[in-house]
Amino acid sequence: MVMISPSLLSADFAILGEEVKRITEAGADLLHLDIMDGHYVPNLTFGVPVVKALRPLTKIPFDVHLMVENPDFYVEPLAAAGAEMVTVHVEAARHLHRTLQAIKGNGLKAGVALNPATPLCTLEHVLSELDLILIMSVNPGFGGQKFIPGSVGKVASLKKMLQEAGAAPLIAVDGGMNRETAPQMIAAGADIIVAGSAVFGAPDLKEAIAALRG
Ligand code: DX5
Ligand code: ZN
Known about the structure:
Elements: E1 3-6, H1 16-25, E2 31-36, H2 48-54, E3 62-67, H3 72-81, E4 85-89, H4 96-105, E5 109-114, E6 132-136, H5 151-165, E7 170-174, H6 181-188, E8 192-195, H7 197-200, H8 205-213
Parallel strand pairs: 1-8, 2-3, 3-4, 4-5, 5-6, 6-7, 7-8
Residues 7, 32, 34, 65, 174, 194 line the site of zinc ion (ZN).
């Protein structure tokens, strides 16, 4: 069954701890934490200390999405802070294979994210290293943006590429997910739906998560 990973970016930052408890009770499978450094993307969020502070509040695995220029700096600290999955952007990693090995070497699940303009072929030589592939269906940096429709075909092509290669990383999608777009991505092969505004912006978190499962 598809997993829902609510993005904390759309939560109320004044009461982050309460939001983590609320989303846990609402049935989230994972918690998506967007770390942005104001360089790789034109926005700045939070860092490892916040991940560490939130970790004791829930048992849900932490799915960390690094939108930073130097992802290697964060791998070990994130492992120490209790993250389970770390996803780096293929465009940001200077030595992607080395970075993925560092993530796995720290006992974490390794993911790679692709921006809307980044082709699937960038993954070809690292497929065997991957636990997760994150397809961005908006340009990274902000919540609440409009879904880019071509992302559905990209997920379908990725699914086919993985089947042909005999590889089985999970496919996650991030950006503009709501009750109309999520079913299209699930039909195309997505295993994880990341959603910020569609979950935290809803009056009933539990109903919003259930609706995304389709
Ligand atoms: C954007 C982030 C997303 C963001 C998605 O760069 O990676 O995780 O929170 O927000 P929504 O679901 O509102 O598009
Ligand atoms: Zn994200």
